[in-house]
Structures are given as C-alpha cells and as structure tokens.
Amino acid sequence: MPDSVKFNIKLVKWSLDYDSSDSNDLISTPIVLQDKNGPCPLIALINTLMLSNDLNLSRSDYIPSNQAKSDAILHFKSVLLQHESVAIELDLLLKHLGDLLLEFTQDNKSGLRFEIDQLLNSLPLLHTGLTVNPNLINGEFNPEDLSTSLFTVFDLKFRHGWVINQIDNENIEWNEEAAPQEGSSSSHADNYAQVVELFNELQTFDRIQDYLLLDSTKDPKLAHNQTLIHKWLDLNRTQLTRIGLDKLNLCLVNEQFVVLFRNNHFSTMFKKSDKEFYVLITDTSFQTSKSSSKIIWQSLNSISGNDDLFFTGDFLPVLNVDQEPQEQYDTDYLLTKQLQEEEDEALAKRMQQSYDKKLVKSENQAKEQKTPTPAPKPIAKDAPKKKKKKSVCVIV
What we know:
The protein is α+β, with helices and mostly antiparallel strands. Helices cover 41% and strands 11% of the residues. The two termini are 18 Å apart.
C-alpha cells in the first residue's frame, strides 16, 4: 500500500502595520505548504480561507455574519495548528474541508449551482487537478463551472489576470514577430485589431483552443487568424497582462484575499492597497533556513516577475530584515525559480501529449473520409495546447 500524501504546516506571523516590534499586533495563521508539483488548488483554497478569516477577526469592529461558519473555520485552524510539527495527511484535510463545506451550505442550499453531494465528491479534485476555463476578456471564470463553485461555496473570489488589452497592444515584440498576412496590405495594427475581434467572439480559453484546432489547410484566412492567436498566447504565456492587473485592481477591494490563477497555478493573493498585490509563498524550501523562513509574501507588480521582491510577514522587504546576506537571498530566489521552471516544464509536456493525441485523432478521421490533407502547421513550443481536461498542478 503506497504511503499516504502528507503536507507540512507553517505558522506565519503577519501584520498590516509594517511594524513587527509588538508581537501582540501580529496575526498568527497556519498555512499549508506545497512540495514540488504539489496540489496547489487545495493549498490555495485552505490558505486563502484561513488568512481571510484571521484578518477579519483581527479587526476590532468585526462581527461575523454567520457565527457557525466562523467557528467552523476556527476549528479547522486548530486542526492545522496541531500539525505544525507533524505533517497532516491529505485524507484528514479533505475530511475537515468537507465538514466545513456542509457548514457553509447549511443556509444556502437553494442558491447552489451544484448538489451538495456533487461538491463533496469533487473535493479530491482540489488535489488531483481542476479543469479551469478562463475568460480572456473579463478576467473571470464561468460561475457555472465546478471549479468556480468549489471556491465560491467558501465565500472566496476566484480570479485571473490573463486578459487581452482591447485598446493598446502591450507587447512590443508584436511588431517584430507577428508578420502581416502574405499578399495582404494589412499592418501590424490591423493584425492586432483582428486578434482583439477574435477574442471578443471566442471569449474563453476553451473556445480559443477549439478554434485553433480547426482545419485551416484550405482556408488561408483561418490559418492567418490561428497564427495571430498563437502569437498572442506565446507573447503572454505568463498568463498575466498589464490590463489584467488593472482589472484585478478594480474588482478587488483593499485588504482582500483571493485565489489567483496564473502560470497554470493556483495561489493566494492579497490586495493590500491600491495597485499593491502580494502572493503568499508556500514552497517548502522557504521553511528550512532561518533567513528564508522569514519570507511570507512575494510582490506582484510586474508581468515577467523580474521586478517582484520577497517580503516578511509585516510586508517589509527581506533584504532590510536583520541585514540578511545577499547570497542567501539569491539562493532562495533561485531555488524557487527552479521549482517553478521544473513544474512548468512537466505541465508543458502533459499539454503537448494531449495536443498530439488530439492531432492524431483528427488525422485518422481525415484518412477515413478519404480526404487527403497536408499535416497541420505545428504550433509554437510554448504556446498553450488544447487540453479538454486541464489538470493543472498535478503531482507527477
């Protein structure tokens, strides 16, 4: 019988006051840590729930709208605290999450989009992987989707920032690489306007992928459109755009926690103030050394991530804390980047395999119909591929 899946728990101390001198002002929250290729939907949900509740309770004027829900979260928190030094098993996490779900749906059964039993039976998907379908126009997810319901049932917002800018082209590389259609007088600006029009028509990532799989061997216009879409997806493969960040800033209030989907990962994001975003660090590598254990947040203020910095629990830059050596900072940063790159590479391989299977099936169907067609043009290496059941952050 295989060993059971377990998760480490880390007690983080944090504050909104930029001052860690008074321990009484610190909020103590247990968070679930993620190992390499770990189940980030489950971790993001639990951590966002714990941090949101602790933030509310820290406010002197806060009165719970539902005391039973608040008590249930506090009970779950006590369970996590009991495993601060001993890892907690997946089955136990799911059991208590299921109990919490029953409490959250107690007074709102008529408003649920799915039956309670269906939601309970779907909780393991938070570990094995969720199917998500982001809308690349409004930065949201379909509220009818199961993945969205698994977050909203716990009163959590589920957002992303992978949105096309319908007015200004944010990619300076577009004019260099996205060549106009051969034999056409269309300009780079016309091509970008065409992509915007296509995205407004298709809206969601799944519909865009369906469009990319259409046979374009005898349709030059379709082939050109597919090339343009591939180019935009490739240039924005971090799944975050400047306009997407602006939309997040508009739809979220200050001092709010949400579940963020980016780079095929689910994470806990905190909007501290206007245009000030932080992502919770959950890598187990940040639990080991004395210096890295102080790192709780990473700023989210750039599309590439190159300008993002690490921060302590009270939102102070790590390099200003106890004058930590630059070498240690670099080591921790590079380790996190390495884990991210390894997981992204594994995910890319799974997505490529899914696309290849779809391509083979399409070619076989064409042969059966005795309609000879040239092989479809291969898509860019880093562009997203069709995957009807996108199991993101799956342990491999």
